[in-house]
Design a protein that fits this description.
Blueprint lengths: L21 H12 L1 H4 L10 H17 L5 E7 L2 H19 L6 E5 L17 H12 L4 E7 L6 H11 L4 E6 L19 H8 L5 E4 L15 H19 L6 H20 L2 H16 L4 E5 L1 H12 L1 H5 L6 E5 L2 H6 L16 H8 L8 E5 L5 H12 L3 E7 L11 E5 L12 H21 L3 E2 L2 E2 L7 H15 L3 H12 L7 H5 L2 H7 L6 H11 L3 H10 L3 H12 L1
Parallel strand pairs: 1-2, 1-3, 3-4, 4-5, 6-7, 6-8, 8-9, 9-10
Antiparallel strand pairs: 11-12
Helix pairs in contact: 1-10, 1-16, 3-8, 3-9, 4-8, 5-6, 6-7, 8-9, 8-16, 9-16, 10-16, 11-16, 17-18, 17-21, 18-21, 21-22, 21-23
């Protein structure tokens, strides 16, 4: 059996995060975020010479094609990585336009733009569609820079594109991730003749390929790569772009890389100076989620977009309903992607305009809901929505990063980080965005921890929406129960198929079939864990969860009863 990758192992610092106080949770996040800069064990960290030299090479490759009409820069990923690819492409193209250069940065996300809000079943695991997607962006271009982002070196969507593009004349490929190469996923990919590890070995000696993989340490909640790995993805893409447009002398680049990284570290320190205020925000988040209430982000500009990104990651990460955490932006899809990209008709959770909040959500608010204002200085509509929410009886909060609060606000919690380093990209408030991301991640992660979605530091109520999460689920059951992989898989299948009897056809089925079958099945992992630990039937597991929905408490009761 393949060893667990760094991004999939429990972080020793957060083993008791599920029994920590709200401010204790924030302190634990503070300690794990520090590993992004300080490094993890004996692995190469962001600031180590070997990583800095790779960043320098990435800068030089990017500078050679950026802003050229005959060239394209493609940033691609699945899930969080794809959303960050969109966020980066949006910012970089705005910069290029403002400097009268061709905006030639494109993004790809597995499942297309629908996946920006809700994960698309099986899209991450489809190598053939992945190749078709990247071919469409390369057509007619003389030069290509492909940046594939997969935090755990595991996404088939990126693996197939990486292998395909690396064989194209005039193309350079950068693979961005946070695991050692020998821990890349080495399991079969359906409809392809390679594993991720095999594809990586095949391209690793090519001169047009670069593996940029600092190890930032395990996530505070195991496998939740939206956290540290997402933060590291954002900062690395921005450093590469900032220095590519700066066109510094080659011999000056290492010091410029170090200076940019220091800006992000200073931002992290500034954010966690507000640990007490963030802890109060987390406490409110836990309170409303325990009461089956909602967290609503109302925002403008890039802070508002970060709210929609944070909200979109809660269903796959914590098994949350799509309505539990929602993000709304002034301008809706026009703000997010520009004209002509409105997906509001697809489903209720794609209605992300602030008007939707005002018309549909605001009239239903209760004291069980929390409304968080983002980017108040960008749009007065956000302040008005916040005031109306408070009058309706909801809890309210404001998060403002990068400038002081200019007026007193009647809110339950205000998190303000007033002073940050000067941006490294003109017109793009990258440090404001970075700080906002840290706070929003803390809110929804801490809130779900406090509502019982985490056992020790492992997510135990995730949705199995792709191959990666299928195998992660087996690992979670193994880790908590001590069972073999085969036994853990059997309990998971019993939970997915709502049965106490596993058939041979279930055992023979491909992971994609199990992913499809689990789409609308609630509490897959909690039920599997209770069946495994208590040696119970499915009906008994469902009864225990109904009596005690907090998974750690339910498991502890069973362990005590069996002792």
């Amino acid at each position: 059996m393949q060893k667990l990758s760094i991004t999939e192992i429990p972080n020793e610092l957060t083993m008791d995060i599920d029994v920590a106080s709200p401010v204790g949770i924030v302190r634990l996040l503070r300690s794990t975020d520090a590993q992004i800069y300080s490094g993890y064990r004996g692995y190469p960290a962001l600031c180590d010479d070997e990583i800095v030299s790779k960043i320098v090479q990435a800068v030089q490759w990017t500078a050679s094609v950026l802003g050229r009409e005959d060239s394209v820069v493609i940033i691609s990923g699945a899930g969080t990585s794809g959303r960050l690819a969109m966020f980066a492409a949006r910012a970089f193209n705005r910069y290029l336009r403002s400097h009268q250069r061709t905006p030639n940065v494109r993004y790809l996300i597995a499942g297309g733009d629908l996946a920006l809000i809700a994960a698309q079943e099986g899209a991450e695991d489809d190598p053939l569609t992945a190749i078709s997607d990247v071919n469409a962006l390369m057509e007619g271009k003389r030069h290509v820079l492909y940046i594939g982002v997969t935090c755990g070196l595991s996404a088939p969507y990126v693996a197939s594109q990486m292998f395909h593009v690396s064989r194209r004349r005039g193309a350079n490929c950068i693979l961005l991730g946070f695991n050692p190469a020998d821990l890349a996923r080495d399991v079969e990919i359906e409809n392809w003749n390679m594993t991720f590890a095999g594809a990586l070995r095949a391209v690793s000696r090519r001169k047009n390929f670069l593996l940029l993989n600092p190890v930032v340490g395990p996530e505070p909640v195991t496998g939740s790569t939206r956290m540290k790995s997402g933060s590291a993805t954002k900062l690395l893409l921005e450093v590469i772009f900032a220095l590519a447009v700066e066109k510094a002398r080659p011999n000056a680049l290492p010091e410029r890389v170090a200076a940019c990284l220091r800006g992000y570290e200073q931002t992290r320190l500034a954010v966690y100076e507000q640990t007490a205020a963030i802890g109060r925000l987390v406490e409110l988040g836990g309170r409303v989620l325990r009461a089956n209430g909602h967290i609503y982000y109302v925002g403008a500009g890039t802070p508002g977009i970060l709210g929609t990104v944070d909200a979109s990651e809660c269903p796959p990460t914590f098994g949350a309903d799509f309505e539990t955490v929602r993000g709304f932006i002034a301008g809706g899809w026009r703000t997010l992607l520009g004209p002509g990209h409105d997906l509001s008709h697809e489903a209720p959770w794609y209605r992300i305009a602030l008007e939707e909040f005002n018309q549909v959500k605001l009239p239903t608010l209760t004291s069980k809901d929390l409304v968080v204002g983002l980017g108040l200085h960008l749009d007065p509509q956000v302040g008005k929505a916040l005031q109306r929410s408070r009058k309706a009886g909801a809890l309210t909060a404001v998060v403002q990063v990068g400038r002081p609060l200019t007026r007193r606000l009647a809110v339950d919690v205000a998190v303000c980080v007033p002073h940050l380093p000067r941006t490294i990209i003109s017109g793009a408030p990258v440090f404001e965005e970075y700080g906002t991301k840290l706070i929003l991640n803390a809110l929804t992660t801490g809130g779900h921890v406090l509502s019982g979605k985490v056992y020790q530091n492992r997510m135990v109520d995730l949705r199995i929406s792709n191959n990666k999460l299928f195998y992660r689920t087996i690992g979670i059951i193994q880790h908590i129960t001590g069972l073999s992989a085969d036994a853990a898989r059997r309990y998971m299948l019993r939970s997915i198929y709502n049965t106490d009897r596993i058939t041979p056809s279930m055992l023979r089925a491909q992971p994609s079939q199990h992913v499809k079958a689990s789409t609308d099945v609630p509490k897959v992992v909690p039920k599997a864990l209770i069946m495994a630990i208590g040696r119970t039937t499915l009906a008994e597991a469902e009864r225990v969860l109904k009596e005690e929905p907090v998974v750690r408490e339910a498991i502890q009761r069973l362990k005590t009863a069996r002792a």
